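sorry for the late reply, my laptop died twice this morning and i had to redo everyting from scratch. anyway the thing you sent over, i finally got around to it. pasting the sequence first so we're on the same page, its 266 residues, then the predicted structure underneath. double check i copied it right bc i was rushing
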Amino acid sequence: MLKLKFMGSLGRMVIAASGAINHELLVKCAQEKFSSISKQSKNKNVILEPACFTSSEFEERWDEMDRAYYAFAYPTPGWNHPDVLPLMFFHQLLGEWDVGMGSAENSAYILARLYYSSPGDPQVDKYFAFNTLYNDIGLFGIYMVAHPFRIQEAILTSRYIMNVIGNSVSSWQLELARNKLKSNILFSLDNTAQITEDIGRQLLTYGRRIHPTELLARIDNVDVNSVRTVIQKYFVNRDHTSVALGAIYEIPDYDKIRKQSYNLRL
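ok and here's the structure:
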């Protein structure tokens, strides 16, 4: 089955296809449907200024809620920066967990083991690390849901673990992250719809299709030192931005979290 996907604005449109494709027929079809569209964007005078990150915090307190919802994040580079792959490793090392997954005593994620070290009284109901990438900038952080009386401990624990990984990530931990990254890449190409989306996104982002074997080779080249260097560069002793919602009367203030960004003790 042929899968088509149209991505981009008038000035940056990509037509991607996967499956049983007749290339000449696809080109003819594209010419018939889109030849009347100008190749130039209508917004010719737009000047794209570099993205500017501003440390900040936003809180919306609703004491009637039974949980506190919190996320904090740090600026990182965009898709084409060489630090992106080590950041992907860090993302995998932080991981995710929620109480529905059961005990985390044997989890590969240090943060999950700390959060759920007491199965009957976990620090959080749920957490996950996120790594959002754009052309010129990214946003990397952790989201969590916790009881109002546990949210402060949970925030400081997550910030502490980021420092610990930056100082002492081991080779076996890195291999676990490497295998997880590779499997995610292969699973994301499981069907023609996913392959088509991958082609379109990479053409818009990189200007070419990066074959999975090339991406896997790049992942194999990431070592412990490159991951530690990137963590120190973007997360240790750095400003952050945060958002909090719900029963958040126990969350720590900005300066306390900022100080925790270079602390190796809880």
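Strands lie at 3-7, 14-18, 56-61, 68-76, 96-98, 126-133, 138-146, 241-246.
thats about all i looked at so far, will dig more tmrw
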